[in-house]
Amino acid sequence: MSKDISTFLDISPVIPVLTIARVDDAVALAQALAEGGLTVLEVTLRTEAALDAISAIARNVPKAIVGAGTVLTTADLENARNTGAKFAVSPGLTDALADRADAVSFPILPGVATASEIMRGRERGLRHFKFFPAESSGGVAALKSFAGPFSDVRFCPTGGITLETAPAYLALANVMCVGGSWMAPRRLIDDKDWKAITNLARGAAKLRV
After folding, report:
1. Which end of the chain is more exposed for a tag (fewer CB within 10 A), N or C?
2. 42 is catalytic
3. Which pTM does this prediction carry?
């Protein structure tokens, strides 16, 4: 399995997790976030516009590295790959998804919440995971507990993380970055207030400790 996902996780302290309802917002949103210093973006496959949004960002925002989130099936992975995504993020991991990512050398960040899930991922050669859903799965305390038995594993916790709680995660040695959506709230996207989103992104980009 491709392990290049670590390259993307090391770029900025926060990966914006974006649910884009309108393709027309995609490029301006990505530009605003990249201008603020957040260049690695996750566009979730939760809307009909998602794949077209990924394609638009990949073609028109050279500063951005766009990946696909909520990848549930091999078809999702192939669709994301074919539209310009550079990596995939999944809430979990199946053998079929792992096999396909491995076959096409496509970087994938699978979600885990338990020791057993981490062990299964490690058996597939993975050492980087999305800890998801972070806040409801034990948060910082759980990640501290994982550090002992899984000293070679690194995480991107995602789910319920805010500007206020992110620093506690980023202070952990086994956390490379966090995923969050606070820097791109729906109201600012609807208002097309790209300057405000850039300012929020700048604040998030300074969270590296």
Report:
1. C
2. yes
3. 0.96
Query: Considering 130, 135, 164, 192, which one is annotated as catalytic?
Result: 130
In this structure, which CATH number among 3.20.20.70, 3.40.50.1970, 1.10.10.10, 3.90.110.10 belongs to the domain 5-205?
3.20.20.70
- 33-53 confidence digits (pLDDT tens): 999 999 999 999 999 999 999
CB 39 within 8 A of CB 13: no
To which residue do tokens 């199946």 refer?
94
Active site residue 130: yes
Instruction: Please name which of 16, 36, 28 lies closest in space to residue 203, comparing C-alpha atoms.
Output: 36
- Spell out the domain ranges in the chain: 5-205
Beta bridge partners of 131: 112
In the set 35, 42, 86, 135, the catalytic residue is 42
